[in-house]
Request: fold
Amino acid sequence: MGGGHLIPILALPFVTLSDFPLTQRFGLVVLAGCIIDILANLFVLPLLGGARLKKRAFEHSAMMHNLRSMQAAFYQSESDQPHPGRARAIIKAHPEVRQLMVRNPWTALIALSVVVLQTSLAFCFGKLGFGYWWLSLVMAYCVGAFANHANYVIIHDATHNLIFRNKSWNKLVGILADLPNLNPGAMGFRVYHLRHHSHQGDYEHDADLANHWEARLVGNKWYRKAIWLMLFPFFQLTRPPRLKAITMWDRWFFVNFACAVAYDVGVVYFCGWPGFLYLAFSFFFSIGLHPVGARWIQEHYTNDPEQETYSYYGPINRLALNMGYHNEHHDLPSIPWNNLPNLRAMAPEFYNNLKYHSSWSRLLFEFIFDKKYSLFSRIERTKRRNDEAPSSPPMLRPATPVALSAETITF
Reply:
């Protein structure tokens, strides 16, 4: 039974025993019912409906070895990352994919629309006051998280200069899209995300890998992983200092910082702290304990050392601007978000043999409660000697035999 059926049951103790005002008691009932309904429909019902986990089985001894090593270190790989080789093979087999490498200036209009939407909702909650914090929380979960996450995707496309031809205009769109996040992250993201593409899995250059101390601290305890997801932006701030040869502080960072401060002050002045609270809720849900927060897990977390990047093919891509098409994006990062599904359609033989996720919600549940997952469930590239020839990257062409399931990873 869904959470809606439980609301009358939950209402009795809240209404009769609580000392909260009537509006807050009603809000607690609605919030509890919504949370239970979301959990029931996303996690419990799929399990009861008989959906199964489908993935290639390792031999028992190899699996146990991987599980043990996962607790202490990343998976080690001497191979180059697979994406540049696969990109060359795709272009050779399907030169028509070059037609997908365009810019989409309409993305800037989406960014502006999201900023207007989120600012308007913040103004409304500012008028309602703190007494409606519960409604602010529900709206941030159901609306604000998706809105902020969409602007994260726009920041991402702006980082790859996929909106306008002029690089400065792309940076300005990124700063605009960053405003509802309340903190200046767009220009810093631009620096370390481009390094992530060129040095994927290199601990000294890729900020997408967790710090060693961070992974050991979190381990594979469910409550620690949940707290880590909830505080994910704070942990991200601890990673750039370990990276080599990067410059985070430039004039664009200070422009980003000044715009964020001005927007925050404007929100507090015109919308009050209740409006600011709504945007803070939206920010943390958009990257944490929410289905869209599983995107951070989906992209490169793995229990299979033979595949280090995963895509998500599910309905939330419509709201997330196709951010789930991550293998496609890493292969050809010059293709904007709206054309990524077309890339998969044009070159299906390169993607149909890869594992993928069909549900961010179930992945979030799996990551938190399955002990096989930890922050060490990632591929780390080991350094080679200068005189050592690079090993052949896997999955360069569709004819290469790859022992990966073509079925969805799903519960």
